[in-house]
């Protein structure tokens, strides 16, 4: 019998496949499509799966982040989520506050984490705010510069 983790991973693979094939408009639609494929999932588990997969909504549809097999996928993913940025500012010598549109902070934080910026030690995301911790003030400056560039290129 498969473990809960195995079932979760299989469900997430099915979600990725659905998003590539169908581009569903709601979590309810995702749930219905998963049910057709033999997966039982609650709305909260679907929401968690979407968040953990780095999925975001654009134009009323759920969209996968940039394909990780593509060249410069981290940069492409950051460029994709830059449309959600609203502002960035330093807070002390080791912290950056990033403002996003409502509901996009976790998606942007996943993109930042995936980018592998060495100076960014970690992120914490709420609904429309991200805190980025840096190891030192120089890392904060580098991260601020990167984020401001993304903000102005969108």
Primary descriptors:
154 residues, alpha+beta, Gyrase A, domain 2, four-stranded antiparallel beta sheet, 6 helices, 6 strands
Q: Give the helix proportion (percent range).
A: 40-55%
Task: Specify the number of helices.
Answer: 6
- For the report, how would you describe the main beta sheet? 4 strands, antiparallel
Q: Mean pLDDT, nearest integer?
A: 87
CATH level-two architecture of the largest domain: 2-Layer Sandwich
**CATH topology (fold) name of the largest domain:** Gyrase A, domain 2
Rg for CA atoms: 17 Å
Helix vs. strand class: alpha+beta
What is the strand and helix layout of this fold?
Elements: H1 4-21, H2 27-36, H3 43-53, E1 56-58, E2 61-63, H4 73-81, E3 85-90, E4 95-100, H5 105-115, E5 120-125, E6 129-134, H6 137-153
Antiparallel strand pairs: 1-2, 3-4, 4-6, 5-6
Helix pairs in contact: 4-5
Plain-language structure description:
- This protein is of the alpha+beta class and 154 residues long.
- The chain has two domains: 4-63, Arc Repressor Mutant, subunit A; 73-153, 2-Layer Sandwich (Gyrase A, domain 2), CATH 3.30.1360.
- It is built from six helices and six strands.
- The strands form two sheets. A four-stranded antiparallel β-sheet has the order 3-4-6-5, with helices on one face.
- Strand 5 (120-125) and strand 6 (129-134) form a beta hairpin.
- It is elongated and about 50 Å long.
- Residues 67-71 have low confidence and may be disordered.
């Amino acid at each position: 019998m498969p473990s809960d983790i195995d079932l979760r991973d299989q469900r997430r693979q099915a979600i990725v496949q659905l998003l590539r094939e169908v581009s569903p408009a709601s979590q309810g639609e995702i749930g219905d499509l998963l049910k057709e494929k033999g997966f039982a999932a609650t709305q909260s588990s679907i929401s968690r799966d979407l968040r953990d997969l780095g999925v975001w909504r654009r134009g009323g549809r759920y969209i996968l982040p940039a394909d990780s097999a593509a060249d410069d996928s981290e940069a492409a993913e950051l460029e994709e989520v830059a449309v959600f940025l609203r502002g960035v500012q330093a807070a002390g010598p080791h912290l950056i506050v990033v403002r996003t549109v409502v509901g996009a902070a976790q998606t942007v934080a996943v993109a930042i984490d995936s980018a592998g910026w060495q100076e960014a030690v970690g992120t914490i995301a709420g609904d429309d705010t991200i805190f980025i911790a840096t190891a030192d003030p120089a890392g904060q400056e580098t991260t601020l510069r990167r984020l401001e560039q993304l903000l102005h290129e969108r």
